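Tutorial, part two.
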Amino acid sequence: MIQRLQIENIKLIPFVNKVDTSGTKHASNPYNPDIANALFRSGYIESWGRGISKMTNLCLEAGLPKPEFEYDSTGLWVTLRKDIFNEEHLLEKGLNERQVKATIFVNENGRITNMQYREINDCSRTTAARDLKELVDRDILKASGQRGAGSFYELITSIK
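Running the prediction step on this input gives:
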């Protein structure tokens, strides 16, 4: 199943060192002004210089994660993810296999308890508590309900 789409622009964009703040106004110099003008006149684009903020807004409106931007002196890469709650992405974020399994479980079921964590991961109460605390500390899960046996964990909607 495809979990992400990655697009590469081999030309360095003028404001590449400010990609994470590009929602603000900035100069835009199309790599090929003739093509940009033809696309503008044909209605394929309404203006240039708004692509990053527009991509971000459209992803959020569709309930998708914000695009991820990487850049260096050779170009810019944009990664669009279908869902951040998949094994590949969670492992990239440094979660262990138990935490990945639990996070996917919470995404599918809405919540998880310490007992459910132990059951799906075949681990001790101490290991479950430690792993769950780390997921809370990393702002992936939030503790809800009463303390102790009645507590459960729910997703915080974005992973940093």
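Helices lie at 33-42, 51-61, 87-92, 97-109, 114-121, 125-137. In part three we will examine how such features are distributed along the chain.
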